[in-house]
Structures are given as C-alpha cells and as structure tokens.
Design a protein that fits this description.
Structural class: alpha/beta
Number of helices: 6
Helix content: 25-40%
CATH topology: Aminopeptidase
Number of strands: 8
Strand content: 15-25%
Mean pLDDT: 95
CATH superfamily: Zn-dependent exopeptidases
Largest sheet: 6 strands, mixed
Distance between the termini: 8 Å
C-alpha cells in the first residue's frame, strides 16, 4: 500500500445541549439528572477530540446535542435511537429531530471522510465511559473498538494497542481491544464500513474511562502518536 492515510476525528456524544423546542422533555428532576450523567453525554470526549484534531491538523466533527434526544451513534430503527424522554414524540416530531440533528451529523462525518485525499482514511470516533457499571469496576482504561472481520482494521488496532502499551504516558494503563464494548455492533462507524471499502476507510472508536478525566496532555499525545504508528503500520 502507498500513500500516508488521512485522519478524521469525530465525537458523537460531545455535549448535552437540548434545543429550545425540546426543553419541555427534560424538565423533570429525573430528566435533568440523566442529562448531567453519562447517559446524557460522554464527559471529556470533546476536549480529547479537539486536542487530537488540533495536534494532527485533522478535520473534527462533533455532535453537541444530547443523545437523550436522539442517539446519533445508532441507526434509524434501533431500539436505542430514542430515549425514555424522547420516544413518545409524535412521528412528525421525530422526523424533524432526525432532519435537524441526526442526518446533519451523519452527512458531515461522511463528507469529511469522502472529501479527503485519495487513499486510506482513518476515522477515530472519541468516546468516554463510566468506570463503574452496575456496581462493578471496569478494568479497561482505554478501549480500541474495531471490526475483527476487516483485516486492515484488526492489524491497525493491534498496532495502536501496542504503541499505547509502549508509551510511557499510557504504559501503566490497561489498554484493551473491543472492550468495554464490541466494535462491530450498531453505530456510525459500523454504518460507514458498510458504505466504504476497506481500501478507503477504516473506523475506530477510542473509549476512554471517565476516571482518566481530565485527560492529560501526555495521554493525548500518546493517542496521537498511536494514530501515527497506525499510519506507519498501514504502509508496511
């Protein structure tokens, strides 16, 4: 393979903004508490995504509307597309939300990828996760999610994991592949894999424990260096 890959950074859960037309859905104490929790957004993901994009000179696409209105990392028809607070919207209201929030984000990410120079594009979706789930502490600090059925992604995910394990800034952290979530389940990256050939597109989601927040500049640099290693590994 020839040509250095391009990189595109995204953050699907960068904020917990509620558009004015839907604020009435989030007036209850339970809704406000959900907005402030990991259910409403991925704390720290925006700052990491911005720092990575700035460091790499990469395009950045973020979604600041809360996923409790509509989950931009789920496909239309998925049971998690709408939350407890938005699923009772009328059909017309849901279509308006999709038109105003869901489709624009998907289109912006797709355009950022397809408009890059010819050759491979490495898409990194930045997310964060709660370190304690249902009373149990997760062992993962950094997760690299990918589709193991795509050989190029599997190869590059392993290269990225090894780079992070060698870097002094992250060598003391637990770096897993396809934990705490599986990288091939429904999501934006999975949808783009179905649209774009592996010779053009590889997609990763990097999951950072919220226990690491705020993420240090040294960890961000390690993530960036890891992507650089991924690019070098692609050329081997």
């Amino acid at each position: 393979m020839t040509g250095s890959p391009s990189v595109v950074i995204t953050a699907e859960h960068a904020g917990r903004t509620v558009p004015a037309a839907y604020r009435h859905l989030f007036e209850s104490p339970a809704a406000r508490a959900a907005l402030d929790s990991h259910r409403g957004w991925d704390p720290g993901s925006l700052e990491v995504a911005e720092a990575m994009a700035d460091r790499m000179g990469a395009p950045l696409v973020v979604q600041r509307v809360t996923r409790l209105l509509v989950e931009c990392n789920r496909s239309i028809g998925h049971h998690q597309l709408w939350s407890d607070f938005s699923r009772d919207l009328s059909g017309d209201e849901k279509e308006r939300v999709l038109r105003d929030v869901w489709y624009p984000h998907r289109d912006a990410v797709r355009t950022a990828i397809t408009s890059r120079q010819p050759g491979l594009v490495v898409h990194v979706g930045v997310h964060s996760f709660t370190p304690v789930w249902r009373g149990r502490r997760r062992s993962t600090d950094i997760g690299i999610l990918f589709d193991p059925s795509r050989a190029e992604e599997a190869h590059l995910a392993l290269a990225w994991q090894r780079a992070l394990q060698r870097d002094p800034a992250t060598s003391g952290l637990t770096v897993h592949r396809n934990r705490p979530y599986r990288g091939w389940t429904d999501g934006l990256v999975t949808a783009l894999r179905a649209e774009l050939p592996e010779s053009r597109y590889v997609g990763f989601e990097v999951e950072l424990s919220q226990g690491l927040m705020p993420v240090s500049a040294r960890i961000v640099e390690a993530l960036v260096e890891g992507v650089t290693t991924v690019s070098a590994s692609h050329l081997e």
